[in-house]
Amino acid sequence: MKTMENITMVNLENPAHLEAKGLAKCWEAYSENASGEDIMEIGFNPNSGYVYIALEYGIQIASSFGQEVDFIVTDFETGEEHFLDSYEDAEDKIQSL
């Protein structure tokens, strides 16, 4: 597993209340579902309002405005993003792409 010094953190030096709350939910989902998987990036998308943990193999664990997490899988051929309710559904989606 990568160390924190190898992880890019974007725009989270001083997160707002809901960003911090959402990131906490992302970490909880990571620990329950993907603990040990390599993390590519931890960040914040100002366009969507999502904080996220992007895993090396293609799943993003994301929360917008402190809401429950979404598991996002992107089809890199079409650019379409698939928002899924569970980590297992996200793993199945990656296999089907």
Quick summary of this structure?
This protein is α+β, with helices and mostly antiparallel strands and 97 residues long. The protein is 28% helix and 31% strand.
What features would you describe in this structure?
- The chain has 2 helices and 6 strands.
- It has 97 residues and is of the alpha+beta class.
- The model has no long low-confidence stretch (mean pLDDT 89).
For this entry, give a set of tags.
97 residues, alpha+beta, 6-stranded mixed beta sheet, 2 helices
Write out the strand line-up for the largest beta sheet, numbering strands in chain order.
1-2-3-4-5-6
Sheet having the most strands: 6 strands, mixed
**How many separate domains make up the residues?**
1
Q: What's the number of helices?
A: 2
What shape does the CA trace take? Answer: globular
Strand residue content: 25-35%
Secondary structure: helix percent: 25-40%
Q: Which stretches are poorly predicted, pLDDT < 50 over at least 5 residues?
A: none
Integer-rounded radius of gyration: 13 Å
How many strand segments? 6
Mean pLDDT level: 89
Order of helices and strands: EHEEEEEH
Structural class: alpha+beta
End-to-end distance, in Å? 25 Å
